[in-house]
Design a protein that fits this description.
The complex is a heterodimer of chains A (758) and B (157). Chain A is built from 20 helices and 27 strands. By secondary structure, chain A is an alpha+beta fold. In chain A, the strands form 7 sheets. In chain A, strands 3-7-1-14-11-12-13 form a 7-stranded mixed β-sheet, sandwiched between helices. In chain A, helix 11 runs parallel beside helix 19. The longest helix of chain A has 28 residues. The N and C termini of chain A lie far apart (64 Å). A 5-stranded mixed β-sheet of chain B has the order 2-1-5-3-4, sandwiched between helices. In chain B, helix 2 packs across helix 5. The longest helix of chain B is centred in the last third of the chain and has 15 residues. The radius of gyration of chain B is 15 Å and the shape is globular. The model of chain B has no long low-confidence stretch (mean pLDDT 97). Classes of the chains: A alpha+beta (758), B alpha+beta (157).
Chain lengths: 758, 157
């Protein structure tokens, strides 16, 4: 399974066919989360906390329950407590004590927007009226929003059960610091002693939301016999099933989950919010309950990723050799533990081959929504800070920032600070491609600057099942279970067609539900093309093996006297030429007479995922009167392993860059002094629009992953890692000042520029 | 109280009952089962609900159902003709100008309206026209190329 497919060229892999789900998506036919409707459905609505931090003294639903049209109400009473322990859910560790409280507040509300109760009614207006009739008696508590404030000894404690893990001696008092983690390689003190130049900087970033255009939505139907159907927009319906069944105390088999078409996720749809609530409401009425979040609810009560405070210190010799890298990362977790600070620590110096590294991370609670995964969770924050210092080193040494990075670049055999030795990786190839790119060597205009930054992401494998059916006419139906967010069905159909030597159009890929296919972990970790691709290849090879067996039976020769060559089943050895070669379609026609349907199953826990490195070049122009920065040219260079469908690889590169540019320039959560979010809408939380961006140039570097038959690495996440530092470095040259805070919004930039001239 | 509204949608006369506060978007989706227009924000900031009312591009979440009585509505569902996708739809597929696809109906309706007014737009004109249609997946690059390419084909260039 892990050999590289031989041959100089593939027939289908690497081409750009139209995606199989395309026509439905350009005609409005494709059904997303909110597009489904079930006869007799009720409307479910959530009552949310108006406070950032408060104890719930009591909840009185009696008046709401009496309102005609109200069919069910749920509160904390309907979501029993769960033990505080980290249990595996796929590749994640989940603490259901926190999950249940995030779905429905228990003792306290911990952020503005925290669910307190939910109603199912015959219409939306009745549901809304019912919410107003629910009386919640709150004892408002002091709150804390800022991560540095939250770490102070006298800060309001968000969760009294949190005692900092990873410190000795263990603390005797609860605090907002859930965890301290540390990664050490070599001897940091020795490294700094060897340095000719040491730079130490502190950075601050704000939380940013995944910003998927489709709000969370689902429909739940629970039957009188306890079986249940759930339609939901999710990145992983097996994981959603596990969470819901656990919270409701049901057998997993009772719940069948179908993933709708998904209107973006970026990590934010790997968790459950509405689903357990809709199921609980339906369980009380045995009527379908549909729930859809408003955009305001999405901003206030789902996602985002952490804001952070990051301190970086790096030492370097005059020749550009980096002798030591040290960082302290303080990441906001939101109101429950579990920020991505650990991957943030692991990523921080990963692009470099360093002898001496120390990274310490803190997972910090505050009265914000619990963070959810966002594209390379944790990586963009720490790498922004480190890459910004690398850029400053290059400037201080008078070295080209690409040459500095080349001198220190991680390569095959480099021991990463977080543990493993890298296999074949493309960091050097990306830097070389950047150096010779038209962009790097192109002109700059007035008030413009150019910056460059590198990025790294691990990529993962994990549990995956794919089912292939050889149909009677020789066509193939492919069922995968990792939701297709951006072209997966095309990539899987291409790999199946390549293996089976049939035209791409003869493969129909669909996404199965949880009752029709074995377990699949989420679409996340840049794993779906890698893992479902591996499972597809395994399933296809199983079909081929079965087909060879059928031919052997027909020819009455041993199975090992049959070979698969050039898309044909041929008699081999002594029997070569004695029988007419058969195609899969010939076998399909006689399947019934030779043993029944040919079904190939790839049920694997995918191993061998390989990291992807990228390098981005940004040009920005500053308006000296307003401080507004505009990206005028942008290039993404990234190692894809092998691009199965290059258009969708480019699309991931471009989309990641655009999200990163938004993170760098515009996006941030803004709170008032009461801990209420002030910009819970797309007008004030401004993601990049078409007129904000230039064309985004791409260079696909291909250093194949030896552990995937088509060399796939996984590419979705790395693309969001370099933009913040690349834009920051370009802004430095455009404005003449170096800045240490995101976003680089006009008032901040203008203030920094004025400070320089004053 | 419900209002009885008669209107033309994609060339067909339709009628529906709606309450006073019901938006055109909700009427299309909930009363007429035309779910191609999406609600991304409900505040006119994302453009996922774009439709044409008497040829004018609007966010259907900002129009009331009762306002469209006697008017002509065009939605994504009416864009393809028979077996033929509209050139914009075809170019979006060829250029891989969609990833998740949730913004695509709104972008296509808006782009069609642009090309009806301006068959030969510059890149900047396309970018500003589509500035009201948020896409979080693509970074807009392939969308802009698809629109420019479709425009060229429609001009016979």
């Amino acid at each position: 399974m892990q050999e590289r497919v031989k041959g100089p060229q593939f027939d289908i892999v690497g081409t750009r066919p139209v995606r199989p789900d395309g026509a439905d998506k350009v005609t409005g036919r494709a059904k997303y989360g909110a597009d489904h409707r079930v006869a007799g459905q009720l409307v479910g609505k959530v009552l949310r906390s108006p406070y950032a931090h408060a104890r719930i003294r009591s909840i009185d639903v009696s008046a709401a329950a009496k309102l005609p049209g109200v069919k069910a109400i749920v509160t904390r009473e309907d979501f029993k407590d769960q033990p505080s322990e980290f249990v595996p859910a796929g590749e994640m560790l989940v603490n259901y004590r926190d999950v249940v409280r995030n779905v429905m507040a228990h003792e306290k509300v911990l952020f503005e927007g925290h669910p307190v109760a939910a109603v199912a009614a015959t219409s939306e207006s009745i549901a809304r009226a019912a919410l107003k009739l629910i009386k919640v008696d709150y004892e408002v508590l002091p709150h804390v929003i800022d991560v540095v404030e939250a770490m102070k000894p006298d800060a309001p404690v968000v969760d009294e059960t949190i005692f900092t893990a990873g410190v000795t001696p263990p603390p005797t008092k609860p605090s907002n610091v859930a965890k301290r983690v540390e990664f050490v390689l070599g001897d940091i003190e020795k490294g700094f002693k060897e340095a000719d130049l040491v730079i130490e900087r502190e950075f601050n970033t704000q939380p940013v939301h995944q910003g998927y255009i489709e709000p969370h939505a689902c429909i739940a139907t629970v039957s009188e016999d306890g079986t249940a159907e759930l339609w939901t927009t999710t990145q992983g319906h097996w994981v959603a099933r596990a969470h819901c069944a656990r919270l409701l105390g049901w057998d997993i088999t009772k719940l069948r989950v179908t993933s709708s078409e998904i209107g973006g996720g970026f990590g934010g749809k790997t968790v459950v919010y509405l689903e357990p609530v809709a199921l609980a409401l339906s369980a009380k009425t045995h009527r379908p309950v549909k729930m859809v979040m408003s955009r305001e609810e999405v901003f206030k009560a789902s996602g985002p990723t952490s804001g952070a405070n990051v301190w970086v210190k790096m030492g370097v010799k005059k020749d550009g050799t980096i002798t030591a890298g040290e960082a302290v990362l303080k990441y906001q977790a939101g109101c429950f533990q579990g920020s991505p600070v650990q991957p943030g620590c692991m990523c921080a110096f990963a692009p470099y081959d360093l002898a001496n590294v120390k990274v310490v991370g803190f997972d910090v609670l505050s009265n914000r929504p619990k963070v959810a995964a966002y594209r390379a969770p944790g990586g963009p924050i720490s790498e922004y800070a480190v890459e910004s210092v690398v850029d400053e080193i290059a400037e201080k040494l008078g070295m080209c920032p690409i040459e500095l990075r080349l001198k220190n670049a991680a390569k095959e055999g480099t021991k990463a600070a977080y543990g493993p030795k890298f296999g074949p990786i493309g960091m050097v190839e990306c830097l070389e491609a950047a150096k010779s790119s038209p962009h790097w060597n192109g002109p700059l205009g007035k008030n413009q600057g150019r910056g460059i930054a590198a990025g790294f992401w691990f990529n993962i494998g994990g549990e995956t099942t794919v089912n292939l059916q050889l149909n009677e006419d020789g066509t193939v139906t492919l069922m995968a279970g990792t939701p297709d967010i951006g072209g997966l069905r095309a990539s899987l159909a291409m790999m199946a067609a390549e293996e089976l030597k049939i035209p791409y159009e003869k493969v129909r890929p669909i996404i199965g539900d949880t009752a029709t296919l074995g377990y699949n972990f989420v679409t996340g970790g840049s794993r779906s093309t890698f893992s479902s691709g591996l499972a597809t290849v395994e399933a296809a090879r199983s079909i081929i093996k079965q087909a060879c067996g059928r031919a052997a039976k027909l020819w009455e020769i041993p199975e090992d006297a049959v070979t698969w060559e050039d898309g044909e089943i041929r008699p081999a050895g002594d029997n070569a030429g004695k029988f007419k070669a058969m195609k899969l379609a010939d076998i399909a026609k006689v399947a019934g007479k030779t043993g029944g349907a040919l079904v190939g199953v790839g049920a694997i826990s995918a191993q061998g995922a390989a990291p992807s490195f990228g390098v981005h070049i940004a040009d920005t122009e500053v308006d000296p009167d307003t401080g507004k920065l505009t990206v005028t040219r942008y290039t993404v260079i990234q190692d894809a392993g092998i691009a199965i469908h290059p258009s969708y690889v480019e699309g991931q590169f471009q989309g990641g860059a655009a999200q990163g540019i938004g993170w760098a320039l515009n996006e941030e959560y803004i709170y008032d002094d009461k801990g209420r979010l002030q910009n819970a809408g797309f007008l004030d939380y401004r993601i990049p629009v078409a007129s904000d961006l230039p064309m985004i140039e791409t260079i696909i570097v291909e250093v194949p992953n030896p552990r995937h038959p088509y060399g796939v690495r996984g590419i979705g996440e790395t693309a969001i890692v370099p933009p913040m530092a690349a834009v920051n470095a370009s802004a430095r040259r455009a404005t003449g000042v170096r800045m240490f805070e995101l976003p680089l919004s006009p008032p901040k930039v203008l203030k920094a520029m004025k400070g320089k001239s004053a | 109280m419900k209002h009885h509204v008669t209107t033309m949608v994609n060339g067909d006369e339709v009628e529906f009952l709606c309450s006073t506060e019901q938006t055109l978007l909700d009427c299309l989706r909930d009363e007429l089962d035309l779910t191609g227009a999406k609600e991304g924000c409900g505040s006119g900031d994302c453009g996922a609900c774009s439709v044409l009312v008497d040829g004018r591009l609007v966010c259907s979440c900002l129009v009331l159902g009762v306002e469209v009585s006697g008017k002509k509505i065009e939605t994504i569902e009416g864009m393809a003709k028979g077996d033929e996708l509209h050139p914009l739809q075809r170019k979006f597929l060829e250029h891989a100008a969609l990833q998740c696809g949730i913004c695509t109906p709104g972008v296509l309706v808006a782009a069609k309206s642009l090309l009806e007014k301006n068959p030969d737009p510059t890149e900047t004109e396309v970018r500003y026209w589509l500035a009201g249609n948020l896409c979080r997946c693509t970074g807009y690059d392939k969308i802009i190329r698809a629109v420019m390419d479709a425009a060229a084909e429609m001009r016979g260039a």
